[in-house]
Amino acid sequence: MKYLAAVDLSEASLLALDALRAFAGQEGGDVTLLHVVDLDLYTAGGSIPGIMEFAKERLTQESVRLSDCGLRITAIRVEQGDSTQTILRVAAEEKSDLVVMTNLGKGARTGRLFGSTAERVATSGAIPVLIERVGVAEGDSENCCRLVEGSPFERTLVAVDLADDPGAILSRLWTLPGVGTARIVHVAENDTAAADARVRLGDLTAAAPEGARLESDVLVGDPATAIVQDAAAWRATAIALRPCTHGALHRAFWGSVARAVALNANCSILFTPTGD
Questions:
Q1: What is each CA distance from 40 to 52, 133, 174, 235, in whole angstroms?
Q2: How many whole angstroms separate alpha carbon 221 and alpha carbon 231?
Q3: Are 122 and 129 in contact (CB under 8 A)?
Q4: What's the rounded Cα separation, in Å, for the pair 202 and 212?
Q5: What is the C-alpha to C-alpha distance for residues 271 and 264, in angstroms, rounded to an integer?
Q6: How far apart are CA 205 and CA 57, in angstroms?
Q7: 179 with 270: CB under 8 angstroms?
Q8: In this structure, are residues 43 and 197 in contact, taking their beta carbons and an 8 Å threshold?
Q9: Closest by alpha carbon to 160, among 176, 171, 151?
Q10: Integer distance in angstroms from the first to the last C-alpha of the chain?
Q11: Residue 49: which of 258, 57, 41 has the closest Cα?
Q12: 3-class DSSP state of 124
């Protein structure tokens, strides 16, 4: 597996590397470390060459920790440009199988809410994106921690739309290391639709790889609310689902189940687009 860890060098973003070690360290893999200097977003002082040199030194330090747990660092890249487009470009150049990022959990007051770079990367590419959720102590943006210990894939709730190629999400999931138990859920509009959905979910579970720990259920109600509540009750460490890949106007007008889940769930989010 090839991983791209995109970090902004904040303490919160570096926790993405802790998540990467937790699920990929035992099985190994190739890692590209990336920091993007986005001049449109950059507000600190100092020369750009100096900033880029500092970033490279910092990433080099982090690479040692990743190497110590069995991961192979294949590239350390510090790039200038638009954050989203640069992450997607580097992921393509490095042939990455998964992009790993972080985003603060709901209730954080540091201003880095979901909806910027992480959302754009997840909805713009054809590569899975793991957004590791990070929390901070109220009033103390430097005191960060992962919301879930261990591998984010230990208990993965897979939210599927039965009208939208649900098998593709599971196919992506089974390629990832450290996957423990998976729970497939579909949210139906009413009890009548739920009965048919249960039959179709049975077909999905039957097609799972031999030895996969898997369960399924059909929920009824508002999709985003039902998914978030079920994930909390089941103690999910991650929620896997497809992002809304339509334009910004579509997301703003209709709303996106994926975006609402990502805003409100207190666990990692694995966006699994089905495009190649």
A1: 15, 25, 38, 39
A2: 15
A3: yes
A4: 14
A5: 15
A6: 46
A7: no
A8: no
A9: 171
A10: 16
A11: 57
A12: helix
Q: Give CA separation, 157 vs 25, 39, 254, in Å.
A: 22, 37, 24
Gap between the Cα atoms of 249 and 236, Å rounded:
31
**Cβ contact 62:14 at 8 Å:** yes
Enumerate residues 6+ apart whose C-beta is below 8 A from 238.
130, 148, 152, 153, 155, 156, 157, 267, 268, 269, 270
* 3-state secondary structure (DSSP) of residue 42: coil
Contact partners, residue 181, CB within 8 Å, separation at least 6: 154, 155, 156, 213, 214, 215
Alpha-carbon gap, residue 77 to 55, rounded angstroms: 9
Pairing of the two strands 181-188 and 268-271: unpaired
From first to last of the 276 residues of the chain, give the pLDDT tens digit: 999 999 988 888 899 999 999 999 878 899 999 999 887 655 555 678 888 899 999 999 999 999 999 999 999 999 999 999 999 999 999 999 999 998 864 444 333 443 478 878 887 767 899 999 888 766 555 678 888 888 999 999 999 988 777 888 888 888 899 899 999 999 998 888 898 898 888 888 887 788 888 999 999 999 999 999 999 999 999 999 987 655 555 444 434 788 889 888 989 999 987 654
Q: List alpha helices for 145-222, DSSP H.
A: 166-174, 191-206
Interacting residues of 7 by C-beta distance below 8 A, sequence separation 6+: 13, 14, 16, 17, 33, 34, 35, 59, 62, 101, 102
The enclosing H or E element of 182 equals strand 181-188
- Give burial (CB, 10 Å; 0-12/13-18/19+) of 131: buried
CA of 22: how far to CAs of 104, 134, 152, 193, in Å?
18, 15, 8, 39
**Partners of 133 in the β-ladder:** 103
> Beta-carbon neighbour count of residue 255 at 10 Å?
12
